[in-house]
Here is the input.
Amino acid sequence: MTARKKLTYGEAITEIEEILQQMEDEELDVDELAGKVKRVSELVRFCRNKLKNTEEEVEKVLKEMEEE
Here is the structure.
């Protein structure tokens, strides 16, 4: 069994952009649309969490630097 590659923020944004472009170009049929909307929702949630975690890490590092 192969391990699934961990998704990066950049990859998530790229996938969101690709799905949105398919929607704008009307390349998706109704059957695909619900699945793609769900996937975009998951990707947006992933990106928000990644940004929040990164912000917390940066704040922690800055606080540690101030204490030195």
About this structure: Residues 9-67 form one domain. The chain has a mean pLDDT of 91. The radius of gyration is 17 Å.
